[in-house]
Amino acid sequence: MTDKTSRLLPGLIAAAITFLVFLPALSGGFVNWDDQRYVYENTLIRSIDLEFLKTIFSTIQVSNFHPLTMLSYAVDFALWGENPFGYHLENVILHAINTFFAGWLAVRLVEARGNRNHISAFIAGLTTALLFGLHPMHVESVAWISEKKDVLSGLFFILSLLAYLRYHRNRSFSSYALCFAFFILSLLSKPMAVTLPAVLLIIDMYPLERHSKEGFGRMLLEKIPFFFASMLIAVVTVIAQSGSGALRSLETDPLGLRVLTAFRGFIFYLVKLIFPTGLAPYYPHPLEQSITNYQYWGAIVIFVAITAAAVYAFKKGKAAFPGAWAFFVVTLLPVIGIIQVGRQAAADRYIYIPAIALFVLIGGALA
Description:
Elements: H1 3-21, H2 35-40, H3 50-58, H4 67-80, H5 84-112, H6 118-134, H7 139-143, H8 148-170, H9 173-189, H10 196-205, H11 210-213, H12 216-243, H13 255-274, H14 294-315, H15 320-332, H16 355-366
Helix pairs in contact: 1-5, 1-6, 4-5, 5-6, 5-8, 5-16, 6-16, 8-9, 9-12, 10-12, 10-15, 13-14, 14-15, 15-16
């Protein structure tokens, strides 16, 4: 098996299987849960002209600043009108492409640890890609037309990570610029991508181990433009959601309750990823919102135990698990409940990118 085969074939196999598995989504229609705001009652996307471009890049749409997503809906409307088939088709295609790149990312991360065994790379890539493509928690992001922002932002998020790994190998400005460009496109698709600069630092620590070779100074200096862009989009998003009424006030949801919700959320998502049963489009908060509820104190105990185990493993020089756990926690932070948007306690769509950490960890372990 050649280098190119071991890198590309796992993702291609998984992408083809994923596309076939998601074919039933093509027969779905619109739903009256945001689809009307994004597509079939949205007069803004009916034409693409300078006024449209000015509007989507200067105003808030559907409580968010995601102009690239709105532009994609306008292109879809020009192609498909109000036929939901085309919108579903594009979501499925984007998810299949993301599945391919998730496999490629796993291969590159395994290779970054110095493992050049083609069979190991193939196993890591195929396992990661299949888990990413077929996991039931990703159905919401793919089969719901309004969540196109997930698959679109996810595409550029993964591409940015791949470009960064390339930059690490060749240290060329073009690779760095490509990484940043993909990051901006991801941000303009969904603001949840604000965590990518922190993810790059995690990858610096493991598997690249740049902190021991180059020191933290250069690592942090390289990320300044990324953090600046993240902060800018974060501020715009908070203002947008606050102005639209989507942002919950501290009077409605006190800070203490938000912290409890966050701890419960981390473990909720982890459990659902491992045992994806009882999935639903809406997860309410527990009736008893108090530290006395085992769902809260139990989650805190488990979170602290996992974090302590990760720290211990890192000190022992085994950084794969700590790196995956850090990736998982960091990428969930924008939607974990500290800044509460909407009434839900959790949502399957929020795990689209964070799940990659667990899948790569499993793929790398098998490899």
